[in-house]
Amino acid sequence: MAHWTLACHRLGKRFGERWVFRGLELELGTGARLIVRGANGSGKSTLLRLIAGLLAPTEGRIELRANGRPVADRMRVVGWCAADAALYRELTGYEHLHWWAQTRGLPSDRPTLMAHLERFELAHRAHEWVRAYSTGMRQRLRLALATYGNPPLLLLDEPDAGLDPSGLNLLQQVLDEQTRCGIALFATNRAECAAWGDLALELGA
Q1: In this predicted structure, what is the pLDDT of residue 103?
Q2: Which residues contact 10 (CB under 8 A, 6 or more apart)?
Q3: Which residues partner with 33 through β-bridges?
Q4: Helix (H, G, I), strand (E, B), or coil: what is residue 7?
Q5: Smallest Cα–Cα separation from 201: which of 62, 46, 34?
Q6: What is the rounded CA–CA span in Å between residue 160 and residue 177?
Q7: Are 44 and 157 in contact (CB under 8 A)?
Q8: pLDDT at 161
Q9: What global pTM score does this model have?
Q10: Are 166 and 135 in contact (CB under 8 A)?
Q11: Residue spans of the chain under pLDDT 70
Q12: What are residue 195's phi and psi, to 5 degrees?
């Protein structure tokens, strides 16, 4: 199994004249679970989007390495879950996961996909349109998409939003399992989730 290392060097992001943060230094290795906290507007989502490759930094750089070798395309090995991540209302949960599996070159056979949906307690609604899902079910689907294939870098931007106690327990299991295959960053201000990480980063402090 590869050893993964994520490093941010003097990372900064500016929107217009406003710097969200500057000079951020960070280094994480396989097994690390980092909780990112901070007030609204402190840069939690911005940091995760930079690491995912969805935004470009204004200054500094981000490196992801597998066994010491640079990974050129971070987006190919990232699992991404955010409360505002788009889902297609006219597709079913199963169709979302099937499309995602084919896009990533992952197993797309029905038994494997259904087993993954069952893990997130979605198998019984797998063939219903997402527009009929509750807020919590949509968040479970986002988690299912983010974790499929055990990506080495898992980025969770307030994924606890809308989850019931059962969903929160499932989310904690996801973080626990991620320590065996890679790195997890979890942005949240929910106090009870703070203990889920072994490291914490406070933005805007």
Answers
A1: 92
A2: 22, 23, 24, 25, 59, 60, 61
A3: 184
A4: strand
A5: 34
A6: 17
A7: yes
A8: 86
A9: 0.93
A10: no
A11: 205
A12: -75, -5
Residue whose tokens read 């995912």: 52
DSSP 41: T
Total Cβ atoms within 10 A of residue 35 = 23
Are 4 and 156 in contact, with CB atoms under 8 Å apart? no
Collect contacts of 168-171 with beta carbons under 8 A, ≥24 apart. Answer: 168/192, 168/193, 170/119, 170/120, 170/121, 170/140, 170/143, 171/143
Amino acid identity of residue 195, one-letter, is A
Supply the pLDDT for residue 205. Answer: 58
What's 70-139 look like in SS3?
ECCCHHHHEEEEECCCCCCCCCEHHHHHHHHHHHHCCCCCHHHHHHHHHHCCCHHHCCCEHHHCCHHHHH
Read off the pLDDT of residues 122-177 as tens digits, 9 standing for 90 and up: 999 999 999 999 999 999 999 999 999 999 999 999 988 889 999 999 999 999 99
